[in-house]
């Protein structure tokens, strides 16, 4: 998703699909991202807040949406006025390669070009090294998402232990260990 100026001016969004199509939408990028996340059952503010805490950074956190779809924010244009958005989103799993742009055209300050599945590309105002850093954060967020949502756990059902059945000695330590393992697995399976 790339911010652009619409045919009658104003902010719009250019969407590059995996099939190589380019669609234009007259709505702002933030509106489309918010609606996309709601489709998957996420709130943009809460998702950003969670991953800000996870990565310990303040801005531009990756947004994992499904097990094969994580969006990374990159600067894709130079806004004409102050409140126009400059950043777009790229799916980490759909990047084919990144090429640095050698020599700057007059007025253009793009530093690299990102090639996507479907044969399309988008310009980026960041250096390739900075884009690689953002993509690595995106990959980490994707692995974290997969860990949270895909794990089946290795919990094997144990008989419940009644308080009056707990004695003393080595049997007590074995039962405490069983209870601790049960509680640990229960807490690990809680979805955030």
List keywords for this structure.
single chain, 192 residues, alpha+beta, 2 domains, three-stranded antiparallel beta sheet, 34% helix, 23% strand
Rounded mean pLDDT is 81
Shape: elongated
Helix content: 25-40%
Oligomer: single chain
User: How would a textbook summarize the main sheet?
Assistant: 3 strands, antiparallel
Low-confidence stretches: 152-163
Strand order of the largest sheet: 1-2-3
Structure in words:
The chain is of the alpha+beta class. The chain folds into two domains: 2-150, no CATH class; 154-192. It is built from four helices and nine strands. The strands form three sheets. It has a three-stranded antiparallel sheet, with no helix packed on it. Strands 4-5-6 form a three-stranded antiparallel sheet. It has a three-stranded antiparallel sheet with strand order 7-8-9, with no helix packed on it. Strand 1 (2-5) and strand 2 form a beta hairpin. The longest helix is centred in the last third of the chain and has 23 residues, at 128-150. The protein is elongated and about 75 Å long.
């Amino acid at each position: 998703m790339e911010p652009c100026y619409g045919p009658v001016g104003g902010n719009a969004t250019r969407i590059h699909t995996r099939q190589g199509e380019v669609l234009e939408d007259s709505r702002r990028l933030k509106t489309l991202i918010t609606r996309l996340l709601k489709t998957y059952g996420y709130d943009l503010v809460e998702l950003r807040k969670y991953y800000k805490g996870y990565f310990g950074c303040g801005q531009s956190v990756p947004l994992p949406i499904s097990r094969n779809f994580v969006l990374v924010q990159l600067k894709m244009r130079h806004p004409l006025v102050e409140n126009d958005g400059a950043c777009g989103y790229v799916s980490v799993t759909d990047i084919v390669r990144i090429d640095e742009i050698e020599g700057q055209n007059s007025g253009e300050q793009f530093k690299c070009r990102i090639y996507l599945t479907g044969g399309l590309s988008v310009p980026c105002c960041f250096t390739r090294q900075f884009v690689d850093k953002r993509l690595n954060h995106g990959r980490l967020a994707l692995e974290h998402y997969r860990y949270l949502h895909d794990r089946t756990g290795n919990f094997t059902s144990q008989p419940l232990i009644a308080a009056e059945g707990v004695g003393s000695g080595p049997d007590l330590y074995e039962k405490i260990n069983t209870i601790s393992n049960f509680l640990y697995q229960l807490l690990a399976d809680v979805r955030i």
